[in-house]
Amino acid sequence: MSRVRAPLVAQFLYFVKLPVFFMNNWEAVLLGLIQGFTEFLPVSSSGHLEIAQFLLGFKELDRYVMFNLICHLGTLTAIFLVFYPQIKTTLTSSPKRFFQIFLATLPLIPLIFILKPLKSIISQPAYLGPFFLISSLLLFLSLRPPINLPIPKKMKPWADSLLIGLFQAAAIFPGISRSGATISAAKILGWSSVEAIPFSFLLAIPAILGASILEGVQLLRNPEETLITMSWITYSLAFLTSLITGYFALNFLIRCFKNERWIFFAWYCFGLGTILTLTLTFD
Questions:
Q1: Band of pLDDT at residue 186, cut at 50, 70 and 90
Q2: Domain for residue 216, yes or no?
Q3: Looking at the predicted structure, is the pLDDT value of residue 66 above 90?
Q4: Is residue 3 part of a domain?
Q5: What is the residue range of 80's domain?
Q6: 3 state SS of 64
Q7: Domain for residue 2, yes or no?
Q8: Is the CB of residue 201 less than 8 Å from the CB of residue 83?
Q9: 186: closest CA among 206, 162, 160?
Q10: Where are the alpha helices (DSSP H) in 20-174?
């Protein structure tokens, strides 16, 4: 564990003696907001959730599988609402785009077999700072002129897809943003914003679905070890909060690209990464 002080938020909640029912719903709304807002903005939802869970003093995070699943379903629904026309076109009349998404998803498959060992290695909060700094570096690089790789023109769409998929796989580390990594990769390779943003979030659909399926399997195989009982109201609040916040976050991101405000996310990740790197230390 990192050498940090005891969770101050958890101490405050205990001091004011808030009812457990209220705390559960308050936590669901807070984490749903963080999940929905940061899932799509290029600032890493996993990194922000880990920070929030640490500050709230959550224990046994592996047992919040059902809660994570509900939040993922909320953000997935937001993608379908915002990008429904592109999804429909991809499924009905764009086999090339569909195959690009398939290729970009392939790098995620090996992670299924090494996910657990990876989590045990990078479970310390002290890793968050360096990974946020990596996110900021990718965002800054996306603002520079594109790189012309020596790839034949006919092969470029497929090579680009695999490279973007490799960047998406890097987002397994908390602090590295999935949307930031994929959009940055596309921009570095010369894609326009109009192409990069829809492709990034079409690519998110199989990634989120795959993660949800894995969480569901984990829940079914070990319900006693992976399930913390919560009320249906708590789960509903988590779903609705992540859905509504995710919907507005997606539209906000699109506007930021149109207004060329991408650099603000880069500086945000740089600042947060610097603070966490200086604050958190390894054992």
A1: very high
A2: yes
A3: no
A4: no
A5: 8-279
A6: strand
A7: no
A8: yes
A9: 160
A10: 20-40, 45-56, 65-82, 84-93, 95-105, 111-121, 128-142, 156-170
Q: Strand pairing partners for 227? A: 64
Asked if 159 and 106 count as a contact pair (C-beta separation under 8 A), the reply is no
What gap in Å lies between CA 225 and CA 216, rounded to an integer?
A: 13
Tens of pLDDT along 127-184? Answer: 889 999 999 999 999 988 888 888 888 888 899 999 999 999 988 888 888 899 999 9
What is the distance between the alpha carbons of residues 269 and 142, in angstroms, rounded to a whole number?
A: 14
CA distance 278 to 112: 32
Structure tokens at 114: 């090494």
Q: What is the pTM of this model?
A: 0.80
Domain count, the chain: 1
Residue 101 counted as domain residue: yes
**Secondary structure class of 227 (helix, strand, coil):** strand
- Provide the token pair at 52: 């929030």
d(CA 190, CA 195): 10
List of residues 6+ apart from 88 with CB closer than 8 A: none
**pLDDT attached to residue 212:** 79
156: how many CB neighbours lie within 10 A of its CB? 14
Residue 48 tokens, joined: 């922000």
Share of the chain above pLDDT 70, in %: 79
